[in-house]
């Protein structure tokens, strides 16, 4: 009598569930079990997107999509050909979960609740008889002749296949049991974090958003565009988060001490800004107070802050702006400097750069090239995306590929 194939999925997050249900659909005779170390599965899905879950991004060109991954671009370009954004949309909609697209191309469930995604994945797992074991951390993994021995806190398990979906691991020490099993691991550093600006007066503008900015790290080639949010500890928003992702390793080397340069007018160059300001000072608004009006649509609080930084009088009118003050204002708008000292990561939604080195993974199957039967999906791989649904899309794609091939 043939024993059923035993598949262990280690990690009960987005990639874990997607690989598990895909495996069970493709290999219905197999016993598929998810092992989750904590009390709850899908906890990151629950809190993502402010509790709304940014499922994917409305980007259907796989080459363009792959450009949103600071680590893993080439690898994912091939992977997306097997399971794309459209495949994600179809998968959820065929199970009654409609996705809607916001103006920034982020896609959310129409319900605007991450619980909808959790319920969908849980129902799929229950319907397919995927077993879920919580509070069962896997502490060790050893490949034997044609099976794996897994060590938990209470027992040793024997399985035929393993899909490793433990998510991002913030510390090297947490990777040791995987490297001991024969996997090359890239040291982790945080990605997607906000910039701390202790004692900077800009933090008094907490909550202010400037919709179109360009941010860069002084003396580096890193540049990012998008909305910028002022917080009570410094700066955040898509512009800053993109910088943190692309610069994850560089900023770690700097120990998160550097200068942030902000262009408040969406990357406009000096001459263009000067021309706009000059025409404003000579046009129909020339008699109005400079603090009360600006030609760029910058929020009033931020504009007032910029004027105060330059020691402009509250009574200064546009037609009184001399050449010297004009030059100072131009420079402030395109090259405003803020010292950064430290970072704040999103504890529940942390994203790491690092993990399983991609050179040892077959992108067509997500299987380790030397360790037969060991597969990977999600952020345990050295893959991370910028904000906007890209990390979840990588989880669905790699989870699907691993699940589809794990039983072969």
Mean of pLDDT: 96
Structural class computed from helices and strand pairing: alpha+beta
The CATH architecture assignment of the largest domain turns out to be 3-Layer(bba) Sandwich
Give a count of the beta strands, DSSP E runs of length 2 or more. 22
Distance between the termini: 19 Å
Can you tell me the residue ranges where pLDDT is under 50 for at least 5 consecutive residues?
A: none
What is the spatial order of strands in the main beta sheet? 17-16-13-14-15-12-18
Which percent band covers the strand fraction?
A: 15-25%
What topology emerges from the helices and strands here?
Blueprint lengths: L5 E5 L3 H13 L4 E5 L7 H9 L4 E2 L4 H5 L6 H7 L5 H9 L5 E3 L4 E4 L4 H14 L3 E3 L4 E6 L4 E5 L3 E4 L1 E4 L11 H4 L5 E7 L1 E4 L12 E9 L5 E8 L3 E3 L1 H9 L1 H6 L3 E7 L6 H13 L17 H10 L13 H12 L1 E6 L1 E3 L5 E6 L4 E2 L4 E2 L5 E3 L13 H16 L3
What would a concise description of this structure say?
31% of the residues lie in helices and 25% in strands. The chain is an alpha+beta fold and 408 residues long.
Please explain how this structure is put together:
- The chain has 408 residues and is an alpha+beta fold.
- It folds into two domains: 6-190 and 349-405, FAD/NAD(P)-binding domain (3-Layer(bba) Sandwich); 193-345, no CATH class.
- It is built from 13 helices and 22 strands.
- The strands form six sheets. It has a seven-stranded antiparallel sheet. It has a five-stranded parallel sheet with strand order 6-2-1-10-22, with helices on one face. The chain has a three-stranded antiparallel sheet with strand order 3-5-4.
- The relative contact order is 0.19.
């Amino acid at each position: 009598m043939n024993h059923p194939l035993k598949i262990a999925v280690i990690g009960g997050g987005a990639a874990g569930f997607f690989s598990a249900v895909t495996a069970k659909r493709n290999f219905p005779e197999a016993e598929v079990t998810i092992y989750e170390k904590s009390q709850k599965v899908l906890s990151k899905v629950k809190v993502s997107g402010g509790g709304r879950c940014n499922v994917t991004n409305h980007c259907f060109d796989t080459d363009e999509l792959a450009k949103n991954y600071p680590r893993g671009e080439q690898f994912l370009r091939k992977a997306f050909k097997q399971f794309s954004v459209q495949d994600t949309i179809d998968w959820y909609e065929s199970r009654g979960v409609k996705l809607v697209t916001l103006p920034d191309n982020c896609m959310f469930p129409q319900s605007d609740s991450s619980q909808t995604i959790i319920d969908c994945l849980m129902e799929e797992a229950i319907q397919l008889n995927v077993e879920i074991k919580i509070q069962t951390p896997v502490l060790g993994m050893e490949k034997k002749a044609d099976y794996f021995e897994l060590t938990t806190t209470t027992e040793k398990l024997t399985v035929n296949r393993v899909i490793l979906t433990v998510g991002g691991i913030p510390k090297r020490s947490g990777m040791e049991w995987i490297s001991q099993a024969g996997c090359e691991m890239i040291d982790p550093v945080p990605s997607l974090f906000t910039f701390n600006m202790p004692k900077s007066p800009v933090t008094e503008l907490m909550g202010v958003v400037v919709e179109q900015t360009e941010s860069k790290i002084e003396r580096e080639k890193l540049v990012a565009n998008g909305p910028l949010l002022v917080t009570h500890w410094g700066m955040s928003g898509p512009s800053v988060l993109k910088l943190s992702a692309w610069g994850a390793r560089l900023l770690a080397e700097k120990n998160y001490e550097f200068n942030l340069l902000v262009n408040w007018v969406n990357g406009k160059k000096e001459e263009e800004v000067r021309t706009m300001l000059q025409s404003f000072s000579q046009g129909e608004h020339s008699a109005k107070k400079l603090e009360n009006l600006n030609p760029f649509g910058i929020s009033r609080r931020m504009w007032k802050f910029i004027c105060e930084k330059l020691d402009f009088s509250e009574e200064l009118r546009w037609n009184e702006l001399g050449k010297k003050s004009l030059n100072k204002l131009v420079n402030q708008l395109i090259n405003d400097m803020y010292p950064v000292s430290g970072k704040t990561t999103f504890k529940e939604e942390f994203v790491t750069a690092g993990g399983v080195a991609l050179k040892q993974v077959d992108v067509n199957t997500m299987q380790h090239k030397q360790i037969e039967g060991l597969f990977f999906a999600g952020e345990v791989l050295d893959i991370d995306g910028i904000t906007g649904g890209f990390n979840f899309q990588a989880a669905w794609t790699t989870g699907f590929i691993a699940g589809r091939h794990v039983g072969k």
